[in-house]
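sorry for the late reply, my laptop died twice this morning and i had to redo everyting from scratch. anyway the thing you sent over, i finally got around to it. pasting the sequence first so we're on the same page, its 263 residues, then the predicted structure underneath. double check i copied it right bc i was rushing
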Amino acid sequence: MVAMAKPLLAAALCFLPIAWAQADRPAPRNDRNSQIAHQQLLEKAKHGRIDVYFEGDSNTRRWGAADYPALLENWKQNFFGWNAADFGWGGDRVENILWRLQNGELDGVHPKVIVLLAGTNNIGNHVPAAAADATVDDITRGLEAVMRLLESKVPDAVIILTAIFPRNDTMEALPLIHRINANLSALADGKRIRFLNINDKFADQNGKLYPGMLNADNLHPALKGYQVWADALKPLLTEILGPPAKDDLAPPPTGDPSAQRPY
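ok and here's the structure:
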């Protein structure tokens, strides 16, 4: 297996692309914090009822995490009654998500809907022009591999494949994001695989973010950005699952084992 060259902070996105990593080859995170989080997510998968399974990197993780109470409250307001559980992990590249899914985090779970958002960490904050085509192809192959694995493990689930969000920490990432999202849209059949692109709600046609959509880092969604995502997801969840129930049976949220203070 390919190993990560350097541990990454759990709550942060990856900033330096690893040229030799391949997104369609599962790779574990070797830092202790990620290993502890993996064990927590394995345990989480054994409890409660999970009808909506969220997977991804920190853009996904922060929404339903115990160490981001304001975002968690928004999560509950939007998804309570649908038995939604968050299995995202900060800093993960596509190959890390692939490894986690292959190593137990979806085993025994039978969600009816899987929401996937991943790929921005594989872009990093600088991609040489000569490597752009290879980067787009690699991330597309990696996300295809994740999709194939999800379909094999939970063949009856509807997968909501979310377009990689725009980011303004590095504007040179935007053309790659656009190209990858175009590739991802081709994977959707409108039935079992739904492609959800809300980027026109985040940024203008030039990719400049609208106020309040992302945090000051211009990378992670702010509360307003998460609400935009929720507003796009809820009609799909209602269509697939029906209206939310009065009770919620999802397992309790987990958090970053290393977190020192709340959001």
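The first strand starts at residue 52 and ends at 56.
thats about all i looked at so far, will dig more tmrw
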